[in-house]
Design goal:
There is one protein chain. This protein is mostly helical. The protein has 2 domains: 171 residues, Orthogonal Bundle (Clc chloride channel); 233 residues, Clc chloride channel (Orthogonal Bundle), CATH 1.10.3080. Helices cover 76% and strands 0% of the residues. The two termini are 29 Å apart.
């Protein structure tokens, strides 16, 4: 017990340092590549240069992957299984190359998130200290979950989300199959009890009060976001099938570089049309949930379409990153657009549904219902977001599951 406590403390500190460096490096690369804040400078840069940056960057990333497979994006469960079966090992060089490749992917505009590499970096660090401290093999999966959760908590600056992420990824079969029902029953029971019983309320927190118009409006929002998830998965599936049939089967030896060329060209085009449709999506989520910028409805739906394309192409081009925040950005756009339309009828604030949409879209597509609810909690501390998120993520998961097998469609990511 003493050694595992020491292990946890060391892994937490070391992972925090590496993730901080990783985040700062990504921002540094972005400012260097685009001569400042890309959202401000890209419209002023030459078109040829905007195409050149993602094209060259993704070729560099694919070259690194060709030289070292460990640089490629791997899911946390895939990493755990590979290490346990002695099929894959990671070194210090792999760790630094992965940080570099992911930072370059994100900084150049590819629509992937930094949470996937963060979880992998944490898992790599945990694996090394597990071996160094000579912990038992039975504790390897526990060690990897500690590392992965540390990485997620650090990159999101959100400890509970990191913990919940690890729980849902490790206790896979039980949590994935049954947690949704627990969430649904709990949030419904809570919303009813809150109206009749007296809770302990911190008077200065407006988030401790439920406005039932947000719960009522959620019933309208459920079919809307379900439609967009259907649209996302259908388009993604069609794009993947097209790319597989036209390219992968015919040009397998050159697959990575062909997709790098396609990916760089697509991302360059999207950057020119609207920079908010590229990059990780972190900036989009931040803007929408804080209502700090105005996007007209036509632009919101354009960005949704472009982000779906950019996310799919980025994954296939081997951009090193996860899909957690990329999915959140699509959901935030859907939610904000819905809130704008509904505001005329129900007097709701669009940024509430931006937060709800971000959590639900991620939670459904990645089969992380508990993480979705905790994410909504830590983002807002507002029951008007938490309760609708809990209701929506369960019902929408059920509706999406009638048509799609999420696990088969998402072969990569965290």
């Amino acid at each position: 017990m003493g050694r595992i406590i020491v292990f946890s403390a060391i892994v937490g500190v070391v992972t925090g340092i590496f993730i901080t460096l990783y985040g700062l490096l990504t921002h540094f690369f972005s400012f260097i590549l685009y001569f400042g804040d890309p959202f401000e400078t890209i419209p002023e840069l030459p078109v040829w240069y905007v195409y050149l940056v993602p094209m060259v960057s993704i070729f560099i990333v694919n070259y690194l992957i060709q030289k070292d497979e460990a640089v490629k994006e791997y899911g946390v469960r895939e990493i755990a299984e590979a290490i346990e079966q002695n099929r894959l090992s990671f070194g210090i060089k792999d760790l630094f190359l992965k940080i570099f490749a992911s930072s370059l992917s994100l900084a150049s505009g590819f629509a992937v998130g930094n949470e996937g590499p963060s979880a992998a970096i944490g898992a790599m660090i945990a694996q090394k200290f597990h071996k160094f401290l000579n912990l038992s093999k039975e504790l390897l999966r526990v060690a990897l979950s500690i590392g992965a959760s540390s990485g997620i908590a650090a990159i999101f600056v959100s400890p509970v989300t990191g913990i919940m992420f690890a729980i849902e990824n490790i206790a896979y079969e039980f949590v994935k199959n049954f947690a949704g029902y627990l969430i649904l029953a709990s949030v419904l029971a809570f919303s009813i009890a809150w109206h009749f019983l007296e809770p302990l309320i911190f008077s200065y927190s407006t988030g401790k009060f439920i406005e039932y118009r947000y719960i009522v409006t959620t019933l309208i929002f459920i079919p809307v976001i379900t439609f967009f998830i259907y649209f996302y998965l259908s388009l993604k599936d069609r794009v993947l099938k097209f790319l597989n049939n036209k390219i992968l089967e015919r040009f397998l030896p050159y697959r990575n570089f062909i997709f790098a060329f396609i990916g760089g060209g697509v991302i360059g085009t999207i950057l020119i049309i609207n920079p908010y449709a590229a990059f990780s999506g972190h900036e989009v989520v931040k803007i929408l949930i804080n209502d700090s910028n105005y996007f007209p409805l036509w632009m919101i739906f354009l960005i949704i379409l472009l982000r779906i394309i950019s996310t799919t192409v980025s994954i296939y081009a081997n951009a090193v990153g996860g899909i957690f925040i990329a999915l959140m950005s699509i959901g935030a756009l859907v939610g904000y657009g819905f809130g704008e339309i509904m505001n005329s009828y129900f007097e709701i604030e669009p940024f509430y549904f931006a937060a709800i949409g971000a959590a639900v879209f991620m939670g459904v597509n990645m089969k992380l219902p508990l993480t979705a609810v905790v994410l909504a909690l830590e983002m807002t501390y507002d029951y008007n977001v938490i309760v609708p998120t809990g209701i929506s993520v369960v019902i929408v998961s059920f509706l999406v599951g009638l048509k799609f097998d999420i696990k088969k469609l998402f072969f990569r990511g965290i």
